[in-house]
Amino acid sequence: MDEVVVPAHKRRKRKGKLDEDLMDFDTKIIEHTLSEDALAEHFPQGYKRLPDEVYKNLERIPAVFEVHEHHIAVYKGKNGKIVKAEHPKEMLNGSIATPSIVSAVIHGKYTNAVPLYRQEQEFARNDVNISRQTMANWVITSAERYISLVYDRMKEELLKSPVIHADETPVMVTKDGREGMHKNYMWVYRSGSMCKTNQLVLYDYQKSRKADAPQEFLSDFDGKLVCDGYQVYHTLENREDTNFKVAGCWAHARRPFAQVYRSLGEEKAAGTVAAEAFVQIQNIYHTDNRLLKLPPSERKKRRKTLVKPLVDTFFEWCRNSIDRVPPSSETADGIKYCINQEKYLRVFLDDPQIPLDNNLAEQSIRPFCVGKKNWKLIDTVHGAKASAILYSIVETAKANDLNIYNYFKHLLTEIPKHMDDTDLNFLNSLLPWSKQLPAECRKKKKTKSK
Highest taxon of the source (predicted)? Predict the structure, then answer.
């Protein structure tokens, strides 16, 4: 039995979905042949070899740990001058940490929601003793010293976007400088999907949910902010020093009616006020979704002629229907919400770059909520700020189809080389959408099977 390793890039055949799924991996060809004696016994009158029967399977090679012991040559001249050979700068001085192992820890926690204590256990199973405290120090230091530079540059880019989505979620931080346990907040901001801008997701840790948090982050933003009906956003819009306008979320407007509709079931819900509202909003969505692929100017025109009449009818219906339901009912709450938010829910009609809802922000903050269920709380403010930075890189990498682990490894390899630079222009080549990123940082794009 012979084995031959074929580099992935040399294989060109694509046969079916299985071959397509496996095409980007290096392939070890294992030959199963008969000996000459066996062939002579089977075919005494001679034979010819037909095309091979081929099947494939996938093997997993466990993580391999390798110690790199660096020996730096030291030279001394007769005049006493001492010169050392050049060597790579350490990412963290005096530490065994490397870009590969720190990236693995970051990827485990912030992409796959694996808490550090479980990573500590997994390392131990491989006879590697790294405590969760050591990993936490690696992660926080790497985020603050290196990754924060990319975060800051990404924030500059995000604030140039004509549309930003915003949302927030609570998180417990044990040592936030206040006595006792208090809710802290992780805010998320994402560039609009309908804008011709780079796709960005930024998290921002704040101790509160008050207006000061988004005001500080969005101080240089002068576009449209898509958000839910949280009053803080509206308060900010009305301040003299605020330059952005708020656009409402139709998904939030639809939610109470959808809950009633689905809890009753289609048959029982038929004819109810909640069903009437739900069907009207669904019709608004259906009509607007048909316009998504149009050029912005054409989408704006069609929204005026096709969608605006539906919106006008809906709000007229809301004002006429509020007295048809019990004041304290979920349906009444939904109608009141729509009436109160009408100004903001209409904004999308005048700007073709604004989507109907804020689902993009909610989707972007969901990975943090999943992780929060596993690690429960954050110990320090430093840890919370580091988490905001690292989740930002993870979610932006996803939005730009990057291989997250390889991207972190690239950042932690390249940024330390430039810490003595007098400017930060080198960061441009490291941003998630940069065409200068190496191929291994990009996810392999597979074509759909026909």
Answer: Bacteria
Q: Per the structure block, which two tokens stand in for 70?
A: 């660096």
192: nearest Cα among 225, 216, 220, 214: 225
- Write the DSSP assignment of 16-68 as a string of letters: HHHHHHHTTS-EEEEE----HHHHHHH-TT---PPPPP---------------
Q: For residue 296, how many other CB atoms are within 10 A of its CB?
A: 13
Q: What is the pTM of this model?
A: 0.87
- From CA 88, how far away is CA 70, in angstroms rounded? 10
How do the domains of the chain map onto residue ranges?
A: 1-61, 161-362
pLDDT digits (tens, 9 = 90+) for 207-253: 999 888 899 999 999 999 999 988 899 998 888 888 899 999 999 99
Query: CB of 209 within 8 A of CB of 168?
Result: yes
Structure token pair of residue 217: 């982050």
Phi, psi values for residue 352, rounded to 5°: -70, -10
Cα gap 61→63, rounded to integer Å: 7
> At which residue do the structure tokens 């309908």 appear?
194
With H, G, I as helix, E, B as strand and everything else as coil, classify residue 434.
coil
Question: Is 358 in contact with 226 (CB distance < 8 Å)?
Answer: yes
